[in-house]
Design brief:
By secondary structure, the protein is mainly α. Helices cover about 75% and strands about 0% of the residues.
């Protein structure tokens, strides 16, 4: 009597001997690689134009644009742009924290979705439309002044348009999603049991937030602040419409130099400065993320 061989054994042997097909991950990354390569080419083109002669950007070589960049007026504009971006990042982070806390702590799914939609609206609606909305609110005869005039009888009590206040309001409002989402992600990773343990041990809400919530949520808050800073450093539409000709930023100067003034090397030098600022911001963001991973590890 011969033994009956199992039919599964040869099949397992064939599967073991068959070559393993590796997924073509390289092909999937090809479009993203092409876009990154195109951005790199654009950055190199900007760098080349910045060291060219005016009206001879591709044939001449000169550092005159960087000499003009170091003028007192341009340095003042650069410092002013960085300062407004820093201040807007700080204000946006402070405004975003309670919103992110509500998103992660509320038990109402409807309220969470409603707030999330409201937060994401600035990313959906055009910056141009949002800026014109602010102009309708903050203008001399805007909704805000009309409401306060009706309540107090004072004619045009506030002047919030075409100055730094109006620009700051626009920068903060348009960049709130960039601060809320990383902060909410950091808060969501904090177990509620830590807060409950602190309450059981007698810590009040202030001590709980100071010693537990804020230190653990700090990486997300810092990442959001860095994103807001990088976004507002290159802001163009909001400063142009809400600041008029009284608030000038780097992006507005680039538009003037590469447009009506036809000074492409200086515009390219300012653009290259914005690229360096963006790279510095991203390096700082990666440093914070790496530090957070090391702490959690």
């Amino acid at each position: 009597m011969t033994a009956i061989e199992s039919p599964i054994t040869p099949l397992q042997s064939m599967e073991k001997d068959a070559p393993i097909r590796k997924p073509q991950i390289g092909l999937l990354l090809l479009p993203a690689g092409m876009l990154i390569g195109l951005l790199l080419v654009c950055a190199l083109v900007v760098l080349r134009m910045s060291v060219g002669e005016r009206n001879a950007e591709w044939t001449g070589w000169s550092l005159r644009a960087y000499t003009q960049l170091a003028s007192s007026r341009n340095i003042s504009i650069i410092i002013d742009t960085i300062w407004m971006a820093l201040l807007s990042a700080l204000i946006t982070t402070l405004v975003a924290f309670p919103i992110a806390l509500f998103l992660t702590r509320t038990t109402s799914a409807f309220a969470r979705r409603l707030v999330l939609v409201a937060i994401l609206l600035p990313m959906i609606i055009s910056l141009l439309v949002q800026s014109f909305g602010w102009m309708a609110i903050l203008g001399p005869n805007g909704l805000l002044n009309q409401a306060i005039s009706a309540a107090t009888g004072i004619e045009r009590p506030f002047s919030l348009l075409f100055n730094r206040t109006g620009v700051m309001l626009g920068l903060v409002q348009t960049s709130i999603p960039l601060a809320v989402l990383p902060t909410a992600a950091a808060l969501r990773s904090i177990p509620l049991s830590l807060e409950e343990a602190a309450n059981v041990l007698g810590a009040n809400r202030i001590r709980t937030y100071r010693h537990i919530i804020l230190p653990l949520a700090w990486p997300g808050m810092a990442a959001g602040a860095i994103l807001v800073f990088g976004f507002n450093t290159g802001a163009f539409v909001v400063p142009l419409l809400l600041g008029g000709l009284k608030v000038t930023t780097i992006a507005v100067v680039i538009r003037d130099q590469m447009g009506s003034l036809s000074n492409w090397p200086l515009g390219a030098a300012l653009s290259f400065l914005l690229i360096l600022l963006a790279l510095a911001v991203q390096s700082l963001n990666r440093l914070i993320v790496r530090t957070n991973v090391e702490i959690k590890g």
